[in-house]
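ARCHIVE RECORD
Type: protein–small molecule complex
Small molecule: KE4
Source of inputs: curated submission
Record status: active
Notes field left blank by submitter.
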Amino acid sequence: MTKSEMLFERGVKRIPGGVNSPVRAFGSVGETPRFIASAKGAYLTDADGNQYLDYVGSWGPMILGHSHPAVLEAVEQACRKGLSFGAATEAEVEMAELISDIIPSIQMVRMVNSGTEAVMSAVRAARGYTGRNKIVKFAGCYHGHSDAMLVKAGSGVMTAGVPDSAGVPVGCTQDTLTAVYNDIKNVEEIFDAWGQEIAAVIVEPVGANMGVVLPEEGFLEGLRRICTDHGSLLIFDEVITGFRLSLSGAQGYYGIEPDLTTFGKIIGGGMPVGAYGGRKDVMEMVAPAGPVYQAGTLSGNPAAMAAGLAQIRLLRDTPDFYEELHRKSERLFTGMEEILKEAKSSYQLNHVGSLGCLFFTDQPVRDYASAKTSDTKAFAGYFSHMLKEGIYLAPSQFEAMFVSAAVTEEEIEKTLKAVRKYFL
Ligand code: KE4
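STRUCTURE (tokenized, with ligand):
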């Protein structure tokens, strides 16, 4: 038995499914989850000493690669001063200033401890500010596991959302309406039916939880127009795209200004951090400035702020960081497209910046329904092949490839060689 197998066997006895987050169980790819012992640069090392070239990057945070010396140094220094005070610190002010100086739509920001918490709080702020209850989300977009977001689309625009998880009372989802990604007409129908009751639309500006699905021309612009016209707030969930697609995330990349934005992952540099922010008049509704309550013992934790500040400053100050990351990513993804073409495969590869996804379907993937036509068994076969070749992909067809700055040209060629070996 490998160490990972032994650890998994032990883990399942004491942890639900043996993991602390479901996707880590490798359930949809039929492999034993690899228990990771350490990581450096572009590589993970598992408990058996096997090395993998990492295209998950902890689901996004490790955009610089693992164990970046400047980030580790900043955290070590912060830890020596104490781990947590439950009191205001200079680092939190610096973090709020850094994020709001970089992103034009962010006038105020509140730190929390996860993307889930950021979304839950932003939705509450939007409801508090507008005095309305309904929220529109999109099928296939994932916004963390707060009750109101765990919803299955009700059939037709008139029906309220039904819970998509056990333990979620219908009362928590009845105000969540589900629309079709890239379908502005559907959003207009929902607003025709509920317009004055809709507090906000929340959207992943690039879908990255149904695999990678790009916003089509006019989609994000349409959401911006519709929200403005109806006095609803537009919330960009940039937990994945924030500081990834550009220094100003997807809103900078596509030039659309949301009213609120949620962050996670990259802003924590690998430590548990989330944040939500945006218009001052909305954020001043949040306690203790205003009547919308939200709190957190470890929000703005000093060690986590040190990691986030170090990482964001590196992204801001490294010349041509995003140009270089996108150039390498483009080489990888277009290289994969060429292999698919040579193999006369009709599989679909969606990519933007350092995010990409190979869909095992011959249909263009533009929303959740088309993503779901993918052959997940075929994906599992590809996943296992790549793992054997030492390439660590997200263990699910409906996740993204995350390219980090630590991946070199040689490693991209090594990846393409492994892809070629599978398809040709
Ligand atoms: P967390 O609570 O996991 O920090 O963030 C929730 C979240 C919110 N919004 C978006 C767009 C997200 O992608 C996420 C979390 N992403 C998943 C990966 N698809 C996290 C991986 C996991 O659940 O273990």
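CURATOR ANNOTATION: The pocket of KE4 is lined by residues 21, 23, 59, 114-116, 119, 142-144, 204, 208-209, 237, 239-240, 264, 274, 399 (CB under 6 Å).
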